[in-house]
């Protein structure tokens, strides 16, 4: 039986209490999240945390404040769970910021340097997603497809949402899938391309779930993709720009991200495949005239990707080297030079039928 | 009888044809969109364009390329309307970019410098929104409330969408409102605050339409607000951060924006009121400890607002001067220091019942 997040929080409190009663110096043991402990796991194809941990002591002048902050946040999370309230990282910062009595010392002075990292500490210590502690991340994304879900008591048909689609919430943990009749899941980096595909009813014609990510996929989107992939065995195809940033967006969906390596187990979808845009597409579809000169920054980023362990597949090495040697990139909209419906009627169907994906 | 956008495009073409047949130098007459022709209309409380126009001639070496570009885009828009396709500004750029036969001259080389401005020229020349030419703007925003709409053949109940809400499309021109039972419309700058309010079912308890803007309201959101306000007489309240940027977001919803003054007629909602956060709130709700030091940039922006004609109301002058003299600002999340449900259970209901709004 898997422990509930609230039980994990209570255990954390009891452990500290026990240490105090035993008159030992209370401490928390926290897996290290820095670069030195981030590993690309070749077996699962995910970025994960290694085994290194650090101890945070109460009776240590360098640790005491962080120790206090950790317990304050843990206690506030327990309150969120008990009252069944979800909130944001920013709200949490304001909820825990106060001046300690008879002092000029604040519990917290900065969200990004203090409360956010403590929340990530709790995630790794307790092996939970912050969403399970009712702390919502950024909200973005929209979805349509042959799916019916239940959420907060409402039955929502993703195939009856007109031109807008369902706005993906930051937290998809409690969504119940009542009917999933799609054959695959197509994730589109750009919302404008998503709208074009939705207008052409691409998801109906090709029986897929169409997700618009609006750039880097927010955690809610990544968790939704992961759930559709693991719970319903749906293949996942990602469609982004042909540049180092678009390709990295894909890799975050697939393998996880470096600064959130501890969440990969729940957010990464190693099954995901890349449908385009590729450097090879530029030749195949005669798009040279619609490419953009790569900036120094683009080349630098592509060179970094070239060295990442999760970009070592020969096909990706080839793409990255092509980009660096040719010195250009392309946006997915370049395909519109062939016609407004080219993406939905030619490019994507051809790629899918030929299984022309990058790993 | 109002002319349809496609008829306006055809007229434009026929006018040019006529000029050619008369062997005169073909020209287009275009209202000027630069700062010198932007007026704040005290009567309608909107930013609008003045009467100044310029002529763009075919037989003028400085105008010829732009003349050609205008006709290319106009013709492509006609194609969009005839085929009933909607697309983005970026897609339009790729659709019209090509090299002229037997030359090295491209029709377009840059979206932001060339095709986008031509599209704005067409908007003012034809008195249409780009959305009416089927060119979609940025997509953002989500909505819930006691409303049922029809969109693309689907019946969508905004009160049955769980934690996510309806994703607002870029184009809300063709949405049919089947049932609007709300008493007012609350626009929230930040999506995280929107999620919190949605979780508390604020819209159900206070019978309102709850719109999350995710920063500066996209055109689709502004048009939706405008339609709800004018077609259903719904009051509109805007809730943003207490800083010059949050207040400007409000003013764009209310009066329009300077770079899109020609769209104010269709996008601005002069009826809108500002519900918070204000500098006075910081005192009323004892939030001083949760303020943030204003940066030089913040003060500079507030000083600019102080001089804008649409911020001349004494109450706004007072707020702006307070911000500049005190040298701090606050985020709407500061209210969370009073409790996670303080905004939905205290702050907003109090403000609404006391009609404590800024104009």
- Assembly type of the shown chains? homodimer
- Strand tally of chain A, please? 17
How much of the residues of chain A is beta strand, in percent?
Answer: 15-25%
Low-confidence stretches of chain A: none
The CATH architecture term of the largest domain in chain A is: 3-Layer(aba) Sandwich
What does this protein structure show overall?
The structure is a homodimer of 359-residue chains. Chain A is α/β, with parallel strands linked by helices and 359 residues long. Chain A folds into 2 domains: 5-136, Orthogonal Bundle (Arc Repressor Mutant, subunit A), CATH 1.10.10; 142-353, Dna Topoisomerase Vi A Subunit, Chain: A, domain 2. Chain A is 41% helix and 18% strand. Chain A is built from 13 helices and 17 strands. Chain A has helices spanning 5-21, 64-83, 89-96, 111-126, 191-199, 202-205, 219-232, 244-255, 264-267, 279-284, 296-307, 314-326, 342-353, and strands at residues 27-31, 38-41, 46-49, 53-57, 87-88, 135-136, 142-144, 147-151, 154-157, 166-167, 176-180, 184-188, 208-212, 236-239, 273-276, 292-293, 328-329. In chain A, the strands form 6 sheets. A 6-stranded mixed beta sheet of chain A has the order 10-7-13-12-14-15, sandwiched between helices. In chain A, a hairpin with a 4-residue loop joins β2 and β3 (46-49). Chain A is globular and about 75 Å long. In chain A, 47% of the residues are buried. The model of chain A has no long low-confidence stretch (mean pLDDT 95). At the A-B interface, β5, α3, β8, β9 and β10 of A face β5, α3, β8, β9 and β10 of B.
């Amino acid at each position: 039986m898997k422990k509930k997040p609230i039980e994990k929080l209570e255990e954390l409190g009891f452990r500290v209490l026990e240490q105090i009663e035993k008159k030992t110096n209370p401490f928390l043991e926290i897996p290290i999240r820095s670069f030195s402990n981030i590993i690309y796991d070749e077996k699962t194809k995910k970025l994960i945390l290694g085994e290194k941990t650090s101890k945070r002591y109460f009776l240590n002048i360098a640790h005491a404040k962080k120790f206090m902050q950790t317990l304050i946040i843990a206690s506030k999370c327990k309150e969120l769970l008990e009252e069944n309230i979800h909130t944001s990282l920013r709200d949490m910062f304001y909820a825990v910021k106060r001046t300690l009595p008879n002092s000029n010392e604040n519990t917290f002075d900065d969200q990004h340097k203090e409360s956010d990292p403590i929340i990530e500490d709790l995630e790794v210590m307790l092996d939970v997603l912050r969403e399970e502690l009712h702390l919502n991340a950024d909200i973005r994304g929209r979805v349509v497809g042959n799916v019916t879900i239940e959420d907060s008591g409402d039955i929502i048909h993703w195939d009856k949402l007109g031109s807008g689609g369902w706005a993906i919430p930051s937290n998809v943990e409690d969504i119940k899938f009542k009917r999933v009749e799609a054959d695959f899941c197509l994730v589109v980096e750009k919302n404008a391309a998503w709208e074009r595909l939705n207008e052409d009813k691409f998801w109906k014609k090709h029986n897929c779930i169409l997700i618009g990510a609006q750039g880097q996929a927010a955690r809610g989107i990544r968790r939704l993709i992961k759930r559709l992939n693991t719970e319903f065995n749906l293949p996942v195809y990602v469609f982004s720009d042909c540049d180092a940033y678009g390709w990295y967006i894909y890799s975050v969906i697939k393998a996880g991200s470096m600064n959130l390596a501890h969440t990969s187990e729940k957010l990464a979808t190693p099954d995901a495949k890349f449908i385009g845009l590729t450097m090879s597409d530029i030749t195949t579809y005669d798009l040279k005239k619609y490419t953009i000169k790569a900036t120094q920054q683009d080349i630098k980023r592509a060179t970094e990707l070239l060295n990442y362990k999760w970009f070592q597949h020969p096909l990706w090495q080839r793409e990255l080297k092509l980009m660096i040697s040719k010195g250009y990139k392309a946006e997915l909209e370049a395909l519109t030079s062939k016609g407004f419906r080219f993406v939905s009627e030619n490019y994507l169907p051809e790629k899918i039928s030929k299984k022309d994906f990058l790993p």
